[in-house]
Structure formats: C-alpha cells, structure tokens
Amino acid sequence: MNDNTRTPNPIVSLLPLGVLIFLIVLVVRLFPDDALSGASQVALMAATTVCVALSMVVYHIKWRVFEDMIKKTVGDAGVSILILLLIGMMSATWMISGVVPTMIYYGVQLMSPLFFLPCACIISAVISVVTGTSWTTIATIGIALMGIGDALGIPQPYTAGAIISGAYFGDKMSPMSDTTVLSSSMAGADLFSHIRYMLYTTVPSIVLSLLLYLVIGLFYNGQAVEISQYLDGLNHGFNISLWTMVVPVFTGFLIYRKMPSLITLLLSSLAACVCAALLQPDVLARIAGETMVSARSMFEGIMLTCYTKTNVDTGYAAINSLVATRGMAGMLNTIWLILCAMCFGSCMVASGMLHSITHVLLRGIRSTVSLVCSTVASGVLLNLVMGDQFLSIIMNVSIYRDEYAERGYRPELLSRSTEDSATVTSVLVPWTACGMTQSTVLGIPTLVYFPFCFFNIISPIMSCLVAVLGFVPKPERLINEQIDR
Question: CA-to-CA distance for 283 and 48, rounded, in angstroms?
Fold first, then answer.
C-alpha cells in the first residue's frame, strides 16, 4: 500500500476512525435536520486529515501515495455519481408525470394499516429480486410506498425501514444484483451456489423482520389520515390515470432486457418526461410559472423538474410536501458526501491503517465461528471506514480469501458472510453511498430509519448465529476424508 515497510500500530490506526465517529455524533446532535449540508462532509475531511498527518509524521509515508489512491478511488466512482444524478432526475419525473401519484392514489384504497408494513417489505423485496437493484426499487416504488404509508397514518421511519429491508433482501438474493455477482466472483464461488448458501441466513432474517413489522401493525395505534383527503388532493394536483403505468412497465422491460443501469435510468426518465407532457401539461405550466399551457411552458417545466426543486399545489400542505421533488440538484449533497467518504477510505487504505486493524481481527481466529464472526465484523467496520459497499466487499473478500482457502473452507462461506455484513449494513451508515442515497431519496435521515431496518440489523447477527449452530459449508478437506472412508 505504501513505500514504507513499517506497519501502523493498531491503536494509532483506530484514531482517525475514532475522530470520525466522535465528530459525526457531534454533527448529528448539533445539526439534526441539516447534517448533510456540509457538517458531515467536514467531519470526514477532518478525519482524513488526522489519518494523513499521522501517516506522514509518524510513519513517513509520502503524499504521492495518498494522492494516487484518491485519484483511483474517485475515478472508479464516476459511473456511480452519474447513476445518483439520474436517480434524482428519475424520481422527480416519475412524480411530476403522475406515475407515483397514481400508485399512491390506488394504493391507499387497497392497503390496510394493519398489514401495510409487511406488505411494503414484501413488495420491495419482490421488485428488488426482479430488478436486481435496491437503489432503483427504493427510488421508484419506495417513494410511492412512503406516500401510501403517510396516507394510512404510519410513521415515515417505520415505512422507510420496511422498504429498505425488503429492497436489500431482494438485492442479496437476485442473480442480477451487482453486489451478489461481485461477492461471489471475488470469493471464487459459483453465483447460484452462493445464492443457495445465503438462504440459510437470509430467509430466517427476513421472516423475523416480517414478524416484527406485523407486530408493529397490530399494536400501532396511530390515527390514519382521512383517505378521501388524499384522494381529493391527488386528483386536484394531478391527472390520475392508469396510462401513467406505461412508464414503470417500460422500465421493467428495460430491466428484463438487462440494459445497463445508466441507460435504463435515462430512458425511464425520458419516458416519464413524455408522459408528463401528454398527461400533466397543466402541472408543467404551473412549475414553469405560467398560467397557460404552451410548448415553451411544458419544455421549461420538464427542464426544471429534471434538475431542481419543484412544488405542486394539491390544496393540502401534507400532500404538497409529499409530491415535492428535488431533481438532480437534490443529489449534490449526497455526491459531495460520497466524495469526502471516498477520500477518507482511500487514505486509510493507502496508509496501511485499515490493514493494521483487520490484521488484529485475523490474529484472533481459532475456529469456524471466530472466522465467520471476524468476517462479519470486518464487513461492518469496512463500511464505517470505506464509505462504499463495493469497496467494502472487495476489501473484505481480499483480506480473508487466503485464510478461508488455507483452512479448506468453501468460498461460499466467505461470500455469504461478506454479503450478510458489507452489503446489508452499508445503508445503515450515514456517510456511505447507500446510506446517503436512500436518506436523500426517502427524505428520512439515516439514523432515524436505522432502528426500523430490521432485516439489515438482523442479517449480521444471523450470520454469526448460523455459524454457531454449524450451518456452514464443510471444509473441502473434511469432505475428501469422508469420501475416502
């Protein structure tokens, strides 16, 4: 990682991480509703400064090492940043075109508050399995489910937790998921064998989560908003029409054809723009500040929808805030935070501090249980440090791959343990790409929805519990011994 042969002391290596956690706690307390507008980014840069300063002064690592690593990491994130911008545009155009309002309009009439949370979790899971992406699921059907939950009187953090739990379950179990493919390929495991072994931990985790959501529905005594109020407001603000469902059907077709994410998001957004021009010309004119519908007002309204904040007057303040959009500009704070997080992660890797911390974890391994628990703990730690689930998956598998091979364990055990930790907990960390994206899309701070993401919390614990109970792929050497006998 660096030009120096000295390995940073583990205690010294923990200092930047300790500074980051301390500053983030202060930021959340001082800026509870505005932590993403700059304070969290400054905290990350301060922790990065501590890491670089300690490395250069104590271990004499040259700045060039850090600069090269930052260039590589940020350069690799270019596509992800474009995806974030397109998600901002797509979520806005789906709202203004009437796609999401139509989903909410019919959804509030079909769903019961009693079973809403488990239903929201199951719907998100099914769509995420089919699409292979939790981000697209949350940015589309997730927004609609948030609106339905509001109409049924369900607190937003509960709904967000159910949506995220289902979306990340589907992301893990889908053969089209990039994290699933990455984890299995990095570990050297067959893709479908990897998915099959994940059933041991993933199915119990989602079942427990659904039971908890059902219990909340049974005992929650919140007062539902008058459904007629929501229906009147949506009818007043938009042209509610089932023709708007052509857009999600078209998007599903693109996903079925396995089109690249960038192309799918862009074409879906453009389709929503066409839908808005055909079905919501009055809405576009109002967004443009015009009273009469014209080609100019519609074009201006579409452009404003794509890149900046918009508001639609439905006659009800609660519904106005629900259908307000932020466009691509709404994702800029998220991108800013991701870049700062990547700088911190890059410097922790380049300095060797991350390797020093994980080396301590490796030294304590004595059994299968300790190996799995160490892998899970490392996956969570890497999310705290790296700020990106893909980097966390790559690093986690790279750290433990030789250890698993030397002990004769099947690669599916490593890939499963990595998915149970690095993949699902990334959305629970406020400064990761996943945490910031879903917080921005759903409009709920990460630490607010955190306690209700039951699947994401249970999965790492279940991975360790399953190892304790012995449900792990047997080491190949034991299989060979049984065959010889």
Answer: 46
Which amino acid is present at 84? L
Work out the number of other CB atoms within 10 angstroms of the CB of residue 335. Answer: 21
Task: Report the distance separating Cα 447 and Cα 438, nearest Å.
Answer: 12
Per-residue burial over 254-290, b if 16 or more Cβ lie within 10 Å, else e, is bbeeebebeebbbbbbbbbbebbbbbbbbbbbbbbeb
The amino acid that residue 354 corresponds to is L
| CB atoms near residue 69 (< 10 Å) | 21
Q: What is the pLDDT of residues 158-209, one digit of tens each?
A: 999 999 999 999 888 887 677 887 788 778 888 778 888 899 999 999 999 9
SS3 of the chain: CCCCCCCCCHHHHHHHHHHHHHHHHHHHHHCCCCHHHCHHHHHHHHHHHHHHHHHHHHCCCCHHHHHHHHHHHHHHCHHHHHHHHHHHHHHHHHHHCCHHHHHHHHHHHHCCCCCHHHHHHHHHHHHHHHHCCHHHHHHHHHHHHHHHHHHCCCCHHHHHHHHHHHHHHHHHHCCCCHHHHHHHHHHCCCHHHHHHHHHHHHHHHHHHHHHHHHHHHHHCCCCCCCHHHHHHHHHHHCCCCHHHHHHHHHHHHHHHCCCCHHHHHHHHHHHHHHHHHHHCHHHHHHHCCCCCCCHHHHHHHHHHHHHCCECCCCCCHHHHHHHCECCHHHHHHHHHHHHHHHHHHHHHHHCCHHHHHHHHHHHCCCCHHHHHHHHHHHHHHHHHHHCCHHHHHHHHHHHHHHHHHHCCCCHHHHHHHHHHHHHHHHHHCCCCHHHHHHHHHHCCCHHHHHHHCHHHHHHHHHHHHHHHHCCCCCCHHHHHHHHHC
What would the pLDDT profile of 66-102 be if each residue is shown by its tens digit? Answer: 999 988 878 877 777 887 788 789 888 988 999 888 8
pLDDT single digits (tens) 309-328 = 898 888 877 678 778 888 89
pTM exceeds 0.85, yes or no: no
- 281-to-89, 269, 288, 295, 483 alpha-carbon distances in Å: 18, 17, 11, 9, 71
CA dist., res. 227 & res. 105, Å (int): 9
